[in-house]
Amino acid sequence: MGPYIAAKHAVIGMTKSAGFDHATDGVRINAVAPGLTETDMTKAWKDDDEKWQQMISGVAMAKAAQPDDIADIVLFLSSDSAKFMTAQVYLVDGGQTAH
Fold first, then answer.
1. Is-catalytic flag, 90?
2. CATH code, 52
3. InterPro entries attached here (predicted)?
4. Which of the residues 4, 5, 24, 43 is marked catalytic?
5. What is the overall mean pLDDT for the chain?
6. Structural domains of the chain, count
7. Mean pLDDT of all residues in 58-71
8. Structural domain includes residue 62
9. If you average pLDDT over residues 21-26, what whole number do you get?
């Protein structure tokens, strides 16, 4: 788990650093940090009801994200509506990190 956590924090650090460094160049740099998301990778967990209930019990919304939920924030960050947003990491986790 250590290397995984280190890699996640590296992405956060690079996002903040690059976002700051390139802000005056008109380049916005942000990252999206999704929580539990229903994908082919998590299908085995969902097929095991006990495991799935354990997984979603840590999510405040008591469900996993759908891929479109993640895509929606990426589309928003790519739009002019997010023109003053840079060097940030956006959690899309249904409140999992607040739990």
1. no
2. 3.40.50.720
3. NAD(P)-bd_dom_sf (IPR036291), SDR_fam (IPR002347)
4. 4
5. 97
6. 1
7. 98
8. yes
9. 98
